Each structure stands twice: as structure tokens, then as C-alpha cells.
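Side project, low priority. Logging it here so it doesn't get lost.
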Amino acid sequence: MSPEALAGTRPAPVTLGEAAKVWARIAALSFGGPAGQIAVMHRILVDEKRWIGEQRFLHALNFCMLLPGPEAQQLATYIGWLLHKRLGGLIAGALFILPGVLAIMALSWIYVLYGNTGLIAGLFLGLKAAVLAIVLQAVIRIGGRALRSGAAKLLALAAFVMIFFLAVPFPLIVLGTALIGWLAGRAGSNAFRGGGHGGAADGVADAETLLGEGLPDHARPRWQGVVFDVSLWLALWLLPIAALLIALGPDHVFGQIAVFFAKMAMVTFGGAYAVLAYVAQQAVEHYGWLSPPEMLDGLGMAETTPGPLIMVLQFVGFLGAYRDPGMLSPLMAGTLGGLLATWVTFAPCFLWIFLGAPFIERMRGNAALAGALAAITAAVVGVVLNLALWFAIHAVFRRVVPVEAGPVRFDAPVLSSIDPWTAALTLAAIVAVFRLKLGTFTVLAAAAAAGVALRLAWLA
């Protein structure tokens, strides 16, 4: 069938209300960290709804990978903006984090009120196992679509080795791979952009999508829009921080939370794990907001609830304010502290998208830029694989030992410390995902129920 005939099957325009329902559905399914969340968006928006084409989706993803903050939430904001202007982007981005905000807040209350009871521990046991399988599936799906050439696969492998074994900072990997891709694109190479029948298929897929290949009028860069977005979002982000510092002083816990997490919002390249060590060090050792085991519990909450992994910062802010409530009740202070951490973390994400996306959209045909962004995507596959492996090692094994040999540094699992229940549940979840082809909700629910049953049986 010709591209012209396929274009006749383009999805009908959708209203903002219809799009909001889809974004709410994506938000409810956004488990498994950025890899799983991006895979869910791709399946629904590209394969199922055909609102956006493969190449345009990856182009937007590549740009979001360059930004500080959660790339999956920013990708949702980007596509929502493409479809329905700023309001569409705001709805998509806000809905993406709403389930995580509510879930982490509820779990934070349960955590401080009831502690690590058998039921809660069993729930986390099962959910962690399911998340491992879901993340593995997502890595394979994203890698299969992004690594279409030998050069891209080699770059992904190099990125994995650099970050897992050599502890090379994620921003340096991004800059290095962007330079390689830019030079390749400038030289006319398609090494990182796929080829053969895959490239042709992408062109046809875009002809069938709601957005097509054209540039919507609202997506054209305008300096009036730049001034508007910078003024509005900087004010929304920074004025509350300034007001808290003036009213309460820099030593008050709310002032500390506001300033600390605003700084984190500027440097969280590569997602939560990229800054986890620094956040833990400052929150635990400098501010004394929580203990190392509590930090890991918070990460477990963020891993097993919908929304970005960076939502762990809400738990940190909650405990920090809960333990220094001042004249407020501890629960009220904790709630406000958690919401404050969330606000200063996510408010700038909308600024980055609304400010930069029009220029990125206009430059979609630029070969050098396309090469740089595609190279970043290839490298990020290796980085996400590193995150999946890191989480698997720390979830399945109770102990790890640091290994250092020259420039090589990584945590190796102590094989005798394997957690048999977590390993068994993880294996069962992998079978459910890859062999039985069960859906995300089904796997999560079944694993959670199995974890609770095992924990209660063990306590009995």
C-alpha cells in the first residue's frame, strides 16, 4: 500500500479530554522506572493510538535525555505539548506524576505510623520481583528499537561498561556520545540512525500518525513564547523558595528542603540513580533527615509505585520535615515537606520542555543534531541496562562487596547471600512477562499477593 493510501488511515483528531484519559492511563501503568515508563508510552502512543511516529518519538526522547530531571515525565510533557499546546503538555506532565505523588505520600504515612510490618514487607518483596522483570522487558524493547546498527550496539555496550565498571559520570557519557553522533551525522553517516527496511518503515509509520511529519503552528519557535515561558516558570519555581527563605530563614527545615531539592533539579541527569549517592550522603550525613536503611526503603517505594524514580525525593522531604515539625504536627509538617520537595523538583521540568521543544522540533531535519540525539539514545540503552542490573543485584542479594582493580570499580554480589524468595519470585515474574505475556497490572498484582503470602507464612 502506498504512503498516500496509508495516510488516509491517519487517526482522527482527538480532543484534550480524550487525550487526558490516555495520559491518565499511561500514568497508572508507569511502573518499572524510566525504561518501563518509556516502553508503556511507546506502546500506547506509537503502536496503539498512532498519535506519533517512531522517529518523532525517539527524537523527542533523545532531547529529554539531555535534560536534568525525569526523562519519562518530560517526554510525556513534550508529546502532550505537541498534541495540545502548553495546556496539553501541562496535563500530560502533571498526570504522569500524580499517581506517584499520591502513592509515595500514602506509603510515607504508613511508614511513619506502622513501620515495616509483615504485610508491608511482603508487599514490597513481591513488587520488587515484578519490577525486575518489567524493567528487563523494557530494556529489551527499547534496545530492540534503538540499536539498529552495529555502531549503535557498540556505543550502548561502551556506555554500559563505562558507567557500571568504570563509574564514569552520566553527563560525561552523554556529552561524549553526543559528540560522536554529531560528528557522524555531520559527515553524512547513518551509523546511529538505523537503516535498511527499518528506516523506510519509520517513514511510512509517521505518515499514518496523528501528528504526521508537519510542524504544528504552535510548535514554531517564537521569541514571545520564550519570554512568556521563562518568566512564568521561573517565577512559579523560584518565588516560593524565596518566600520561604525570607519568612523562615535558610536554617528552617522547609528552607533547607526547598534549596536542596531545587539544586538537585538542576543536576539530575540520567534519573534518580545518577544523583542517588549525593542525595543520600547529604540527606543522611549533612542534614540528618533519615538513616541509610530508610533511604533504601524510600528507593524501594519509588521503584514499586507508578511515576518517576526521582519521587524518592518526596519521601526524603517528608521524613526531614516530619522529624523537625516546629509548630506543626509531625504528619502535617511531613506532608508539606514532601510536597515542597516534589514541587521544586518538577516545576523546572515544564520550563525545559516549553522553552526548548520548539527549537528541537524545528531542527528535526538537521543531520548532525539527529546523529547526536540518536547516539545519546544508544548510550542510554546501556545506562538503563546498568540501572536494571544494579537494582537486580541489590534486590536479589543481601550483601555486595566493592571490587576495585585500577580504574575498574563495581559492586559484586556475595553469592551465598542470595535471597531465595526474591529470586524465586523474580524468576516467576520473568516467566509471566516473557513466556505467558501477561500484562503489567496482572504481574504486579500477582507478585504482590505472592510476596504478602510468603511473608505472612514465614512469620507464622
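Brief comment: The radius of gyration is 22 Å.
Revisit when time allows.
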